[in-house]
Amino acid sequence: MTTMTTEMRTPVRRAGARQWAALSVLMLPVLLVSIDNTVLNFALPAISTALEPSGVALLWIIDIYPLVLAGLLVAMGSLADRIGRRKLLMIGSIGFALVSVLAAFAPTAGFLIAARALLGFFGAMLMPSTMSLLRSIFTDRDQRRLAIAIWSAGFAAGSALGPIVGGLLLAHLWWGSVFLIAVPVLAPMLILLPLLVPESRDPHPGPVDVVSIVLALGTMAPLVYGIKTLATEGIGILGIVAVLVGGLCGWMFVRRQLRRPNPMLDVRLFTRPAFSGAVLVNLLSVIALVGGLFFVSQHLQLVLGQDPVQAGLTLLPGLITMIVAGLAVVPIARRVRPSVVIPVALAFSVFGYGFVAVMAHNLTVPAFMVAFVALGIGIGAAETVSNELIIATAPAEKAGAASAVSETAYELGAVLGTAILGTIITVFYRGSIVLPDGLTASQADVASQTIGGAAAVAGQLPAAQGHALMASAGAAFDSGVTVTAAIGSGLVLLAAIIAAISLRRERAH
User: 457 in helix, strand or coil?
Assistant: First the structure.
């Protein structure tokens, strides 16, 4: 990554209207990546009906995108330093838009998984470039702090737009229409980016390290696969080997970075307690958020009977609260230590998840809204403060690597949120579902895999039999929600404890 930042070469200057307009352009890919992480959750019932994926395939449809993206973020950040951040952003945007069209018309679950992998490849070109360009545009720290807060809020804004726009599309069009959102979002960016955003690159970039790229991917893909396999099939040789391979690749990656004079990722940054603590807070918060969205969106539609638009509107207050909390915490963080701000904020999220865990079998729509607002307050504030700390606690010459770590934590959290919490809820569903008599072998197999599959089968059955199947499927799904929400609450609580301990020496600034 970058060893000499733009900030070190450019005099500090106050940003004007042109620079803030450039920020609005850089927000477009941020919004898109965030939308893509959440909108698919609302299309899961329709995808289950149309493509009939297995439970594992359904999880891979979601996971493969952030998995590939997270594995390539640091590598793409290094490539952006070499060829130009704006140039790579343009290449990634064009590729992302084209592959989105292919994903929209995927004929099979396997094709959709492959398309999502390509989306992750091009998506990895978007995120490091936006943060690096942002740092070169905003050289005044106070302005940059606000810009980072707005940039962080973009993820929550995308999460808010995803359910609403996706719900509207799914109410009138086929499931593939949610992928076409990329086209109108990226088209204006391709026009405005060359006009408003100056090119930025490192004049002395390190070499592209192909071995480190392979090791980074070799770390996360086997680990996630191993987690899925162990959770769904129990302790077995395949799952254990996958986890061991991922751990070995991770160890080799760290050793390689420590030995190289110009590493792709400076892992020594993690020896700073404030830096590593902020990364862990970021990671755990995103695991809780994305894992929650995975089961909440399905519960609202398949258990409570809402259509996609209604489900999106149910979550909208919480997601708007997340944006507001992320921006409102900026002046507070200047006066109150992060070791106090983050735990207090996350206490709201602990309450939200705990409420869902206790009331899982009796949750009404208003109760869901209250719980998600509480979750949004904590996650929104914690994400803004932790992202700013990741940048602020790293030395100036390591700003590029710090940016990549921040973005990788977000995407890895998205992977693990679905892989861990999504897998747990799938296991509980399979273990609790009671199928009514009269189903064919094929129908029984589909209905026992996922609640979306049960809904598809129920539509093929007589009314009484279909109702009995959905009642059993809803109860089975909610048995997993109770455990999953409790785990989510524990993850957020752990993040609060880590913040209180690791950030205790950080002053308000």
Answer: helix
In sign, the C-alpha dihedral spanning 130, 131, 137, 138 is positive
Q: Which residues contact 445 (CB under 8 A, 6 or more apart)?
A: none
Cβ atoms within 10 Å, residue 110: 14
pLDDT at 7 over 50: no
Rounded to an integer, what distance in angstroms lies between the CA atom of residue 214 and that of residue 211? 5
Q: Are 149 and 328 in contact, with CB atoms under 8 Å apart?
A: no
The span from the CA of 38 to the CA of 353, in Å, is 18
Using one digit for the tens of pLDDT, what is the confidence trace for 113-123? 999 999 989 98
Which CATH number fits the domain 6-209+260-502, given the four candidates 3.40.50.150, 1.10.443.10, 3.20.20.10, 1.20.1250.20?
1.20.1250.20
Looking at this protein, which amino acid is placed at residue 357? A
For the chain, percent of residues with pLDDT exceeding 90: 11
Q: Cα-atom radius of gyration of the chain, to the nearest Å?
A: 22
Q: Terminal CA-to-CA distance of the chain, rounded, Å?
A: 27
Return contacts of 220-226, CB within 8 angstroms, 24+ apart. 220/67, 220/70, 220/71, 220/246, 220/412, 220/415, 221/67, 221/71, 221/246, 222/246, 222/249, 223/247, 223/250, 224/63, 224/67, 224/415, 224/416, 224/419
Lowest-confidence segment of 289-298, 348-357, 370-379, 468-477 by average pLDDT: 289-298
**pLDDT at position 9:** 45
Cα–Cα nearest to 63, from 90, 44, 85, 84? 44
Task: For 413-444, write each residue's pLDDT tens digit.
Answer: 766 777 777 778 888 888 788 888 778 888 88
Task: Please report the pLDDT score of residue 160 as a whole number.
Answer: 61
Q: 226 with 239: CB under 8 angstroms?
A: yes
Contact 122, 29 (CB under 8 A): no
Domain boundaries, the chain: 6-209+260-502, 210-259
Residue pointed to by tokens 């957020």: 492
In sequence order, what DSSP letters do the residues of 193-257 get, joined into one string?
A: HHHHS-----SSPPPP-HHHHHHHHHHHHHHHHHHHHHHHH-S-HHHHHHHHHHHHHHHHHHHHH
* pLDDT tens-digit readout, 100-113: 999 999 999 899 99
For 12-21, 88-97, 153-162, 475-484, which range has the lowest pLDDT when averaged over its residues? 153-162
